[in-house]
Write a structure and sequence with these properties.
Strand order of the largest sheet: 1-2-6-5-4-3-7-8-9
Radius of gyration: 22 Å
Number of domains: 3
Number of helices: 18
Largest sheet: 9 strands, mixed
Helix content: 40-55%
Order of helices and strands: HHHHHHEHEEHEHEHEHEHEHEHHHEHHEE
Structural class: alpha/beta
Number of strands: 12
Shape: globular
CATH architecture of the largest domain: 3-Layer(aba) Sandwich
CATH class of the largest domain: Alpha Beta
Strand content: 5-15%
Length: about 375
């Protein structure tokens, strides 16, 4: 049997263990270092891992039941000439590994390049011509400056971000919400193949996984995690791009937003971000000025430099997002069916303004809260 097959098989067996999520997978790797060590561990040894459940321990100790399924997936990967990178590999993206729930491994097509910083460009699938041209132009100019452009290969803003980077003969990374054998949307098949040749296409899903709607929020954390900053070009108030922006903020990464017309509903999401402290973007220099420490003359980014830069340069950015995430939805009891002004909500809840606005945005995205003119908010009648 192929040496690489044996190397990766334990990683795939562990993925099949019921109830074992990425956060616990990372804890296990941190403690046991290699997946084969996890599979050999006793119940007592596994029980020492913080917050591990009995169901996960039982699954790991009975892992042979999942071996055939893992082998079948790995066979398909090798048959399709798809590559694998695990979190113990030195070439695993440094910033992605720092999030709380990084993918234990990624499948990919293309060539890894950890020598250049990543920045994500995201936005609406049904963008205006203004949004499309802005996405392409920004991505083109940032790629020329040495950034790898990260996006989700969706139609609209994402596709134009990838095209802008390719036009600049730069690097781009597409993160899929499906398996690598299920190109989505089909209209981007040619773009997929071009990125696979000249950039990287990543997926954490099984090769034949369909693009289920629930996959995309999962995918978004990888987009945010890979990047030292995220740029929202055009997004409606319930756009999935706002989830990516929130995640980026929680990871202490820079969040940027491009303003649009005050009459355009396609820019309501970006305007909400700007109100909450996102960096306003008028041109590529607004981004470069903030992230200049990630650009090196020789385009070399080492783990130590990247980690220190992230901590020192971005420590205080968007901390209110992080704080609000830890106190999720404490504002909800103060909302009523009749519109209440945000100042009243702040006074009654005794919370910081930034926490209140962030939580209101989350609730608005979930359809729980309705935002009215002049900063009035009410609870949705459907959820009341």
């Amino acid at each position: 049997m192929h040496d690489s097959f044996e190397k990766y098989l334990p990683w795939f067996i562990l993925r099949e263990v019921p109830f074992l999520g990425n956060t616990m997978y990372k804890k296990l790797i941190d403690q046991f270092h290699l997946p084969e060590n996890i599979l050999k561990a006793s119940e007592t040894q596994l029980g020492r891992v913080d917050k591990i459940s009995k169901k996960i321990i039982k699954g790991i100790t009975n892992h042979k039941a999942f071996q055939d399924k893992a082998k079948k997936e790995l066979d398909l990967i090798f048959k399709k000439n798809i590559k694998i990178i695990t979190m113990t590999d030195s070439s695993y993206p440094v910033l992605l590994k720092q999030i709380i729930d990084p993918p234990p491994f990624l499948t990919y097509l293309g060539q890894l390049d950890n020598s250049s910083p990543c920045i994500s460009v995201i936005g609406s699938r049904t963008a205006t011509s203004y949004g499309l041209s802005t996405s392409e132009n920004l991505s083109y100019k940032l790629a020329k400056k040495g950034f790898q452009i990260v996006s989700g290969m969706a139609r609209g803003i994402d596709a134009m971000a990838h095209k802008g980077a390719l036009k600049a003969q730069g690097k781009t990374i597409a993160v899929m919400g499906s398996g690598l054998n299920k190109i989505y949307p089909r209209e981007n098949t040619r773009l997929f193949k071009t990125i696979a040749q000249k950039g990287i296409v990543f997926s954490e899903f099984k090769v034949n996984t369909d693009p289920f709607p629930s996959n995309f929020p999962i995918r978004n954390r990888i987009i945010a995690g890979l990047s030292c900053g995220s740029i929202v070009v055009e997004a409606a108030k319930r756009s999935g791009s706002l989830i990516t922006a929130r995640l980026a903020a929680e990871y202490n990464r820079e969040v940027f937003a491009v303003p649009g017309s005050i009459k355009s509903k396609k820019s309501e999401g970006t305007h909400s971000l700007l109100k909450q402290g996102a960096r306003l973007v008028e041109n590529e220099m607004d981004i470069i000025d903030e992230l200049h420490h990630f650009i090196h003359e020789k385009k070399e980014i080492h783990q130590e430099v990247s980690s220190q830069s992230l901590q020192s340069a971005q420590k205080q950015n968007f901390t209110h997002y992080k704080n609000s995430h830890l106190n999720t939805y404490k504002i909800k009891p103060f909302l009523e069916p009749y519109p209440v002004h945000i100042d009243v909500l702040i006074e009654k809840s005794k919370m910081e303004c930034s926490q209140v606005t962030s939580q209101l945005l989350d609730l608005e995205l979930e359809g729980i809260v309705i935002r009215h003119q002049n900063n009035y908010y009410s609870i949705s009648e459907e959820t009341h």
